[in-house]
Amino acid sequence: MVKALVFDLDLVYLSITKKQEIMTVNYEYDGVTASSELEDYVKGKLEKLFNKYEFVHRADVFFKTENISSRDGKMKTSIRLSAPGPQLFAENATESFHKSASETISALERQLNKRKDAMQTH
Q1: For the whole model, what pTM was predicted?
Q2: How far apart are CA 45 and CA 57, in angstroms?
């Protein structure tokens, strides 16, 4: 019996180079229309974290608009990373999803640096 196998080349490449499980990114939109361009932007930024910190294996990304009293609503990005130990979480709200995602990922990178330092001292 022959079984057909279908591979996503990006995922295969990531799993071969990291020699661990495949990076998983889940997206959730709350009151926001899904955007493949935004997902690609965030995935590109997260891939850098996954490659630098190999102990991270999953990210949950949440996009939401916040209603505030001023005319401009804030675009909020929240990201939760799964890694050994407690989950890492950061969120930021700015005038665009791209900017809030970038700032959120920067905050997570600072947390990951602390986690990596703590893991190396043991």
Answers
A1: 0.76
A2: 14
Domain boundaries defined on the chain: 23-121
Report how far residue 81's alpha carbon sits from residue 57's, in angstroms, rounded to the nearest whole number: 8
Residues 6+ apart with CB under 8 A from 120: none
> What is the fold, at CATH topology level, of the domain defined by 23-121?
Double Stranded RNA Binding Domain (3.30.160)
Say if CB 66 and CB 74 are below 8 A apart.
Answer: yes
Strand partners, 93: 76
Q: Which residues contact 94 (CB under 8 A, 6 or more apart)?
A: 74, 75, 100, 103
CB 45 within 8 A of CB 102: yes
Q: Whole-angstrom Cα distance, residue 73 to residue 40?
A: 23
Residue 119: both structure tokens together: 């893991």
Distances in whole angstroms, Cα of residue 84 to Cα of each of 26, 102, 117: 18, 23, 13
Per-residue pLDDT reduced to its tens digit, 88-105:
999 999 999 999 999 999
How many other CB atoms sit within 10 Å of the CB of residue 64?
18
